Amino acid sequence: xxxxxxxxxxxYDALASEYAERIFDELKGKPLDRALLDxxxxxxQPLGVAVDMGCxxxxxxxxxxERGVRVIGVDxxxxxxxxxxxxxxxxxxxxxxxxxxxxxxxxxxxxxxxxYSIIHIPRAQIVDALRELKRVLAPRGVLFLAFHRGDETxxxxxxxxxxxxxxxxxxxxxxxxxHLREAGFEMLDVIExxxxxxxxxxxxHRVYMFARKM
Length: 214
Known about the structure:
Rossmann fold; 11 strands; 6 helices; alpha/beta; 7-stranded mixed β-sheet; two-stranded antiparallel ribbon; 214 residues
């Protein structure tokens, strides 16, 4: 049986350069995402360090950094982390697995923005991942999730000319809300939107959730 962590890590290692070229400037074409990240920045600044969980090339971390947020980027893929460091030398990046954030003490971070990283966690382990994110959040810390809406799982074997082997789990709003509450979060807000233009992103509906550690 394959290990989804190893497969996901290897897939993003292979994609790192192409991913950065295609995705690093994506927020320029995503006005709602920018507005919601501004909101997250205001919420998390008084609470301490914010983390871009599943940071990829660091576009979310950079956006937050430019708004005065103390931010760290975390990614499963060493190649993504290396790419993020090269593109954003003034920001700290490190490898990490959201199911087991080893060496991160309880309550270390004021907020976590997880943009399309939770989608790679197997459905049976989603609550475990959310509980681990809650563990490392400070009291009243904020979790900001973004994910694809639906109930399907997509398993591409190729992306941008590279072989990959990983799952993309879509989630319904109700299911994710239930899992957040089960993990011990208080729901703050839920926002949904239709996809932007095809030249901007994959054509799926998106859900954004703000939750607070209780």
